[in-house]
Every structure is written in C-alpha cells, then in structure tokens.
Design brief:
heterodimer, A: mainly alpha, 7 helices, 1% strand, B: alpha+beta, three-stranded antiparallel β-sheet, 5 helices, 5 strands, 49% helix
Chain lengths: 206, 115
C-alpha cells in the first residue's frame, strides 16, 4: 500500500532519476577546472577577463547532455507546480547573477582593482545567490560541491603564500575538479548502460 | 457499483479494479506525482515492457483516466501522458479507501464485516 509519504518518495525518486546521468557533476567539475585554469591565463600575460567566458562551456555541456543523452534514454518528464516554481527561482537567480556580476566585474577591472580582489568581491556577491540556486535544484551531492567550492576559494587564498600563483589555483580547484569530472563520467557511463537508447520506435498507444 | 464487495468471505470496500491492478496502479501513481511524462519515462520508471505498458495505457485511456497526446519534438514523435481530472479523482478515492481499510484495527471486525 502506497501512503502519501511514499508518493512523495516516488516523486523524489522520479526526480532524482534525472540526476543519474552525471551531467550536473561534469558541469561542476568543469567549473572547478576553469577556476583552476584562469590564473594560468594571467601568468601567460593574458587578461583573466576573457577567461570568464569559458564558463559558458559548462552551460553548453549541460544543455547538450540533457538534450542528446538524458532525454532520449530516460524520457521526458515535467514535474508538478512546486518543482516548477523552484525552477523559476533558479532561472531568475542565474539571470540576476549574470546580469549583475558581469557589469560589476567590468567596472572593478576598469578601476584597476587586482584580479584576486575582483574575484573575492564577485564571490561574496554571487555565493548566496548560487546557494539559493542549488537549493532549487534539490540534489544532495550538489550541496557538497557547493560547500567544496566555497572551501577551495579559501584554500586557494591560503596556498598563495606557500606555492604562489597559479599553482594555488591548480591545487585547490584542479584536484577536486578532476575528481568530480571522473565521478561524473563514471555516473554517465552507468547511466548509458542502465538506459540504452530504445531499439525501436516507442509504440504509439491506441 | 455497490458500496462493498465480498471477497473471500470478508467485506472489502468496493475498490476501483482498474486502479487496483499493480501495474496500472504504478502507472497512475507515477502520473499522479508528476504533471506529465512521455512513454519512455513511464516505461523506465515502472519497468514494464513497451507492449505491456501500451496495453495498460489503452485501458486507462478508455476509462478516461489518462490523456495521451502525440506530438512532435523536432522530427521525433513523443507520446505524452498525463492523468485527467477524472483519473486524479479515481486515484485519490482509491488511495483514501485503502487508507481507511488499513487504518481499521484487525480486532475490530464486526458480524457484518465477516460472513
């Protein structure tokens, strides 16, 4: 007998199935790796600003992964109003972060603030908004990645005096980023094995 | 339908047999907690074969419990499934009946309950 509680569990299980593909893990891993790579650009004498556009890559990976891997194998699902309103919050938060953070960064960089100070201010501004976004996504392991991200920003600053730039970022962001991507790829492989592409056209009912 | 049905000598609430069947119950439960899903998603979650799922969906559609829409997303056909208002009511009623049945303590069987 299914109780109301287990109906909730059924909904949660169906929802969490959409995260079995590891695409969000790969997204987070790429974010870490980009954060590790941006200081290298500065070391090479290139401004770090164009490097921020690299953050479009994880978004593209998410979109392509969901469209071409997840939906053709797992199927399409639209969740109820509660999830939808959370998704709306997510879209708004990302919109606000994007619209406000980019001009803020440009203004600060034009005023000649050092790159790490700009990053710190942007992180302070964006972190609470991103926390809301992760809450809206409702996937427990993303909380861990978010906490890890916050910890590695602090760790990176701490390591600067010991190993200097860009090795601080390479160690702080590169190692967890690589680990998360490997985990994401392993999830993706498991997902592809678990949900093979339907061999034939899905039958049309009646 | 009558209010009660005699099964194995015991009076049980007259449950909707269309919902009561385990495979159809799983389909309806899934569609109850989501707004809509396509054939493939329901198949993956219920672990039914395509033919089996198709047969159950036809029964549920005939009863007016499930709405089936065929649409094209790009060049790909998609069979979109959702519960109708009638289907939601039927599932809710079934759920309520089962809850009442299980809430009744076993020792409370009366002469009219057991024949």
């Amino acid at each position: 007998m299914t109780t109301t509680e287990s109906l909730k569990e059924l909904e949660r299980r169906a929802y969490r199935a959409t995260f079995e593909d590891g695409v969000y893990d790969i997204l987070f891993g790429l974010v870490f790796l980009i954060l590790a790579g941006i200081p290298i650009l500065e070391t090479m004498g290139i401004s770090r600003f164009p490097g921020y556009f690299l953050f479009l890559i994880p978004i593209l990976v998410l979109w392509l992964g969901k469209r071409h891997i997840t939906i053709p194998r797992l199927g399409f699902v639209e969740f109820g109003p509660k999830r939808k309103s959370k998704r709306r919050v997510l879209a708004w938060v990302f919109g606000v972060v994007l619209v406000l953070t980019l001009p803020l960064m440009i203004i600060m960089l034009r005023q000649g603030l050092p790159g790490n100070q700009v990053w710190f201010i942007v992180a302070l501004f964006a972190a609470p908004l991103l926390a809301v976004a992760i809450f809206a996504v409702d996937c427990p392991r993303l909380y861990i990645y978010a906490a890890l991200l916050a910890a590695t920003v602090a760790e990176s600053e701490f390591l600067t005096s010991y190993v200097g730039t860009p090795f601080n970022a390479l160690i702080s962001f590169g190692i967890p980023g690589t680990a998360i991507i490997i985990y994401g790829i392993s999830l993706l492989i498991t997902f592809i094995k678990k949900y093979p592409l339907p061999a034939q056209e899905v039958p049309h009912v009646s | 339908m009558s209010a009660e049905t005699s099964t194995g000598g015991h009076h049980l609430p007259d449950v909707d047999r269309l919902v009561h069947e385990p495979a159809r119950y799983n389909i309806m439960a899934l569609l109850y907690v989501v707004e809509r899903a396509d054939f493939l998603f329901v198949q993956n979650q219920t672990r039914l074969t395509p033919g089996n799922l198709s047969a159950h969906l036809t029964k549920l559609e005939t009863a007016g419990y499930v709405a089936i829409q065929k649409e094209f997303v790009g060049k790909r056909p998609r069979t979109s499934l959702s519960l109708t208002v009638q289907g939601r009511e039927a599932f809710g009623n079934y759920h309520e009946q089962m809850r009442e049945l299980f809430a009744r303590p076993p020792g409370n069987a009366t002469a009219t309950d057991v024949q």
